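Practice problem 4.
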């Protein structure tokens, strides 16, 4: 925020020294600038936005004020959304940002917030899929997605450790599933050998084929 205030002061000073005739007395410009700086320091985004709009009528060619106006518009909605995000209410947070985009559909900051919220929602879902897998295959899929998404959270030791732990779990689950499938084949073979000898012969061939996988899962 201090950097923004400093940039504002420098930008308006440069505009005031451009040599162009001011549309309003310089004293009014300075008072508006001072009021805007105070509002920014207080994080009073609604007042800062109104003051920025006033200054833009005085300095319509200021690209800095144009960017500041867009930023303060987004800050009004972000300030409303932040408490919801802090409580983990992604749906409520997204509704606030969507309301902002409905009024200001081209606001770059709100569009970026929407993208980040979508990514965070996907991240939360993948974490849930990783913690509660339906099987080894679904766990492997969740781990792969988690690795991709974790690029946005490179400093998260939690994610790094979770991936390592779940890869070990996936390997163990795969071995268990192979053994269960093999045991199921044996069971079916025993039943069919008494009722359907021809089908039992087919299963016997499959059992022989799967035996190598069983031996590998025991290592």
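Answer key:
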């Amino acid at each position: 925020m201090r950097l923004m205030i400093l940039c504002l002061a420098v930008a308006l000073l440069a505009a005031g020294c451009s040599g162009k005739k001011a549309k309003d007395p310089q004293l009014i410009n300075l008072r508006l600038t001072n009021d805007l700086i105070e509002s920014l320091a207080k994080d009073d985004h609604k007042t800062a936005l109104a003051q920025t709009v006033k200054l833009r009528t005085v300095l319509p060619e200021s690209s800095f004020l144009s960017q500041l106006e867009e930023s303060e518009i987004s800050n009004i909605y972000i300030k409303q959304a932040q408490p919801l995000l802090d409580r983990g209410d992604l749906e409520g947070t997204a509704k606030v940002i969507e309301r902002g985009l409905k009024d200001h559909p081209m606001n770059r900051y709100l569009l970026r917030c929407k993208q980040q919220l979508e990514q965070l929602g996907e991240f939360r879902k993948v974490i849930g899929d990783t913690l509660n897998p339906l099987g080894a295959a679904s766990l492997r899929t969740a781990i792969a997605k988690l690795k991709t998404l974790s690029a946005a959270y490179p400093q998260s030791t939690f994610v790094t450790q979770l991936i390592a732990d779940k890869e070990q779990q996936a390997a163990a689950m795969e071995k268990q599933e192979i053994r269960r499938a093999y045991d199921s084949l044996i069971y079916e073979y025993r039943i069919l050998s008494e009722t359907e000898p021809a089908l039992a012969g087919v299963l016997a061939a499959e059992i022989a084929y799967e035996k190598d996988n069983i031996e590998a899962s025991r290592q």
